[in-house]
Specification:
The complex is a heterodimer of chains A (315) and B (289).
Chain A: H1 2-28, H2 34-39, H3 45-55, H4 61-73, H5 87-122, H6 127-141, H7 144-158, H8 174-208, H9 211-218, H10 223-260, H11 266-275, H12 279-307, H13 309-314
Chain B: H1 12-21, H2 23-44, H3 77-113, H4 115-130, H5 133-144, H6 148-157, H7 160-174, H8 178-185, H9 190-226, H10 238-246, H11 254-281, H12 283-286
Helix pairs in contact in B: 2-3, 2-11, 3-4, 3-6, 3-7, 3-9, 3-11, 4-7, 5-6, 6-9, 7-9, 9-10, 9-11, 10-11
The chains are: A mainly alpha (315), B mainly alpha (289).
């Protein structure tokens, strides 16, 4: 298990290093001079040169990469060109919107998908299966931002239960903040739940065909117990894999959903930074997202080992 | 993977008959064919000209003249959806082409060479998978300029590792077979074996994956267009229509409903087609469904 963990952490770190080189290189070959972005088109060449020196833009590429990457490791993400405040502070302000949003939608989609998947598998080929899998098939096809628009129309415009967009912050208590995250979370969760339900169903069906399930039923164990206790645990591996992958989708999905609901989260931050050529912010946020995907994948691997003891030994 | 006895390959007519007896395939095929026909038809005929702005008719509801209503410029929504389908299909098809064209050779190469080549390619794959695809697509299109071509490239790049992985997994299962050993004994090169024996045997899984990526490509294009990074006006696109509908939804909800339905129906059709194809082409998976 230790060797397995060490190997996974090593690969994870390697992925981050390669990713940082890619992100840095992409930003490097881009047209546009950050100093010019800050000073505007009418800046004198002298002022431009001074600022370039101050920002370290005249240093060799390798040195600048090492400075930036070293900064990332110590938690110094540099200063934003447009907001002129540290990138870390900007990220901090936005994470408190995006992270709760991602967590709520992940919990929501899991809470819907796993019971539906198990139900469909247990009633395979019957009406309940056909209806729930038909709904899942439809859910996969719905673009989340369109679903978001429909939700806004029904719950914000028509029923006036929740705000149509914006975020009041957490200072006024949990409820107002939570209220403005409900619709975005549902919009993000629906397509994910549909995919997850389908995966759960097929993983369950595969397990339900195994001999030990028949044995458990034959020795008189209740059907429900066999389903939740024996079958679900063995079906968890593919379900966990998809859950891990979905986390990456959720993070990226926030970029559109936060735009639909005008939420001041990471997705909106990075989208605005891209359009304003605030490259240091883009680099920082992208690296943060890549790092969280890598960490989640390692956690998923650890969960594999927890679910399936055989994987612990094999490492 | 252990070599297992091969089932005899069914003839084309048997496969075709099995395909149309499959409910998913049949419905998916009909929907996809209808959408494709609509895109082709839009080149020759649409109810109205989509570049023709009739301000007097702006934001009209559903009527006999305009079955899906009109937008804020008085353009016919049905006509815009018809023309917009071209854009969605073109972007998704080319993006799948890029993914297959680069990913499949890479995956086959990794499987054929094994060892360090395989390891290096698969680790590189992992790096690309660590980037949230949509976020990176937004980055690419925002940086290199919005437009249909850059949207295609952005979506295509993230199809490469998907096809590389599928092709490699498929090829790895074929390589230990006896007829491959025979081909090698006969002195055939790795490339020749891949072209003559591996590719025909993994074609069906690639086809299934292609349909899935096609559907995902349509969704991704709609997302980019919604953010204003896909096809640019006056070329209608489904995602952009939804963006323009958002602020006017209180007065005219039909603006948001029909472009969205177009996306849902298209993606649904492709997914059903993909599911059906998998059932028909891979009987081993069928018993689990």
């Amino acid at each position: 298990m230790t060797a397995f963990l060490a190997k996974r952490l090593g690969f994870g770190f390697l992925t981050l290093v390669v990713a940082s080189v890619v992100v840095f290189a992409v930003m490097e070959i881009l047209p546009g001079d950050p100093a010019r972005v800050m000073l505007g088109m009418n800046a004198t060449p002298e002022a431009l040169e001074t600022l370039r020196n101050q920002m370290g833009l005249n240093e060799p590429v390798l040195l600048r990469y090492l400075n930036w990457a070293g900064g990332l490791l110590t938690g110094d993400f540099g200063r934003s060109y447009t907001y002129s405040s540290p990138v870390v502070d900007l990220i901090g302000e936005r994470v408190i919107v995006s992270l709760p949003l991602a967590i709520i939608s992940l919990v929501l989609s899991t809470a819907i998908a796993i019971p539906v998947g198990i139900y469909a598998a247990a009633r395979r080929g019957r009406a309940g299966d056909t209806v729930s899998m038909g709904a899942a098939q439809l859910g996969v096809a719905v673009p989340n931002f369109w679903f978001a628009l429909l939700l806004i129309y029904v719950f914000a415009v028509w029923l006036r239960l929740v705000p149509a967009g914006g975020f009041p912050g957490w200072s006024g208590g949990i409820w107002p903040g939570l209220k403005s995250l409900i619709l975005p979370a549902i919009a993000l969760a629906l397509p994910q739940a549909a995919i997850l339900a389908r995966v759960t169903r097929s993983a369950m069906l595969e397990v339900l065909g195994e001999d030990y399930i028949r044995t458990a039923r034959a020795k008189g164990m209740p059907r429900r117990y066999v389903l939740w206790r024996h079958a679900l645990r063995n079906a968890m591996i593919p379900v966990l894999t998809i859950l891990g992958l979905q986390f990456a989708f959720l993070l990226a999905g926030t970029i559109i959903i936060e735009n639909v609901f005008y939420l001041p989260g990471l997705g909106r931050l990075v989208f605005q930074a891209i359009t304003q050529r605030d490259l240091i912010v883009v680099e920082g946020v992208v690296m943060l997202l890549v790092a969280s995907v890598v960490v989640v994948n390692i956690l998923v691997d650890i969960c594999y080992a927890l679910v399936d003891p055989r994987l612990r030994v094999r490492g | 993977m252990t070599a297992e006895p091969l089932p005899t390959r069914p003839s084309e007519t048997t496969l075709l008959r099995a395909a149309f007896a499959n409910r998913s395939f049949l419905i998916g095929f009909l929907i996809t064919a209808a959408i494709a026909a609509m895109a082709v038809l839009s080149f020759f005929w649409t109810p109205y000209d989509v570049t023709n702005l009739v301000v007097a008719d702006r934001m009209k509801g559903l009527s006999a003249q305009h079955p899906f209503g009109t937008d804020h410029f008085g353009r016919d929504i049905l006509s815009m959806i018809m023309v917009g389908s071209r854009n969605s299909i073109a972007v998704a098809v080319v993006a799948v082409g890029i993914g297959m064209g680069i990913g499949v050779p890479l995956g086959c190469w990794a499987a054929a060479r094994g060892g360090i080549v395989d390891e290096a390619l698969m680790r590189l794959n992992d790096v690309v998978f660590a980037f949230p695809a949509l976020l990176s697509a937004v980055m690419i299109t925002a940086i290199f300029g919005p437009g249909a071509v850059n949207a295609i490239i952005a979506i295509g790049i993230f199809n490469i590792p998907v096809f590389a992985r599928v092709a490699r997994a498929g090829a790895l299962a074929i390589w230990p077979r006896e007829y491959i050993l025979a081909a090698r004994a006969a002195g055939k090169s790795g490339t020749l074996i891949t072209v003559e024996h591996i590719l025909p045997n993994i074609a069906s899984i690639l086809l299934v994956q292609g349909t899935i990526q096609f559907a995902l490509g349509i969704l991704a294009e709609a997302g980019l267009s919604y953010l204003g990074l896909g096809a640019q006006p006056p070329m209608p696109s489904w995602g952009r229509m939804l963006f323009e509908a958002q602020t006017r939804m209180m007065v005219a909800p039909h603006l948001a409903i029909f472009p969205g339905l177009a996306i849902v129906v298209t993606v649904l059709g492709l997914n059903l087609l993909g599911d059906g194809l998998r059932d028909v082409l891979d009987p081993k998976l069928r018993r689990e469904r």
